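Here is one chain, start to finish.
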Amino acid sequence: MGRRLVPLTLDNLQELPRRCRSCVFWELDPVSGGAAVKAGNSAQEKEAWISAVLLEWGSCGRVVYVDEVPVGFVLYAPPAYVPRATAFPTSPVSPDAVQLITAWIMPGYQGQGLGRVLVQTVAKDLLTRGFRAIEAFGDTRWEGPACLLPADYLLSVGFKTVRPHPTRPRLRLELRSTLSWKEDVELALDRLLGAARKEPALRPL
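Its structure:
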């Protein structure tokens, strides 16, 4: 089976799950986000946000494909581009970090290492761009697909809590620590996809 990771752009935004391609939970402040949803133009606002981040900052996401089928994605950006973050009790994100906004893996591919590979890919990208860390707001009561990632999942891929909170802790992954991650992710991919060859785009750091 073939698998590949590609940057998120306006061209492949439609490959994201329907609820995600028009979600502006993070991209707009609570008032503006509510107004966009009410007006029915949240999809256009999402496109405008991605376009602005790509032009002003650069790559802000990855989409993972298996046999040309999109099975997951990750979205990230500096805190200046994530206005909703300021509404969280554990904000702000540290100035030397980029915020891991959200991520998703299709049911049937979860629990097999693809999510960890997405995080590693983000880490590799940000290391080359001079950042020191990734931070994220976790959800300690996560029960299903949502704009926040489960706090337990973030801890399982190497994040550490830097500001505790009963429901919305802020967690941090030091990018240099990802250099020591082992080959277990690649082995998990092999088991999942039955791939005999390794593709550079998905190699761990």
